[in-house]
Amino acid sequence: MVRPAPPPSPSQSIPNVAKVLVPLVAIATLLPWFSPGVALGLGVALSLTVGNPWPAHARVFARRTLTWSVVGLGAGMNLAVVARAGLHGLGYTVLGIGVAMILGTFLGRRLGVARDVSLLVTVGTAICGGSAIAAVAPAIRAKDHDVSMALATVFVLNAVALFIFPPIGRALHLGQDSFGLWCALAIHDTSSVVGAATQYGERALEVATATKLTRALWIVPVTFAVATYRARQSPADAQATDKPKRPWFIAGFLAVAAVVTFVPAVHDVGHLVSVAAHRLLSITLFLIGLGLSRPALRAIGVRPLLQGVALWFALGGATLAAIVLGWLS
Fold it and tell me: What are the CA-CA distances from residue 273 to residues 35, 280, 287 (Å)?
């Protein structure tokens, strides 16, 4: 008599569930209803519950799609708008980014945050959140769990900003221009800047968008500077896979932005490329989130989040004070 096969144990069934859920959710993140932040959260949630059945494949695919999504994001950058707004805000943009980089590095060292995740949190706060992290991460060959933690930090703060910035602005009787400027200088991601400014008024949205686009363009020189600095720091006997690489994809980002800006015939195509790049970024962040395992999360701890919160409060508070006192306008 043949005995029936025993039912699979819970520990055996979890990998089978993961092999079904992971592809389904990955495809779902391509839909417009899933923002990059939500996609990242879904990846982390699946990794910590059912696990990642294909860690090596997910890691390789995410690294490849990350660079291409950054290039595609250039199609959403209007260099003409940046040029018009850039000269007016050039001084405090440079000052703000410089202060953020110095203060972020200091806080990271004081809190004992790992070098790569500290740098990613810092550039994300200094420039434009997830886009800056996505650009710098492949240039320094950051580990998936470091990228996940940095992205999670800035996305949480973005969500908080959407709720607290408009009430603070109204309580302080900030004008449309002042509030738009504060949003652009103190909120990480462009999407969150637009969301907060939209709640305040059309003029606030106009000022915030133009200023944020100017700030976002600093992804290009900052990424090249970080990659060059890291390449010089790398020991000569390090393996090639551990050395930072030159971020040539940033040149692609700038080239795509230039084509879309100065060739009117491709404006519509550029919009489609930008939309596709955001969808590709969503699935990429989902795969990166899958790399945040329980051991990695325990090893990283809450220090990157503390660094991000402290840096954000310091820069946001200082910017708001400067605007209220009339130093920035």
Answer: 17, 10, 21
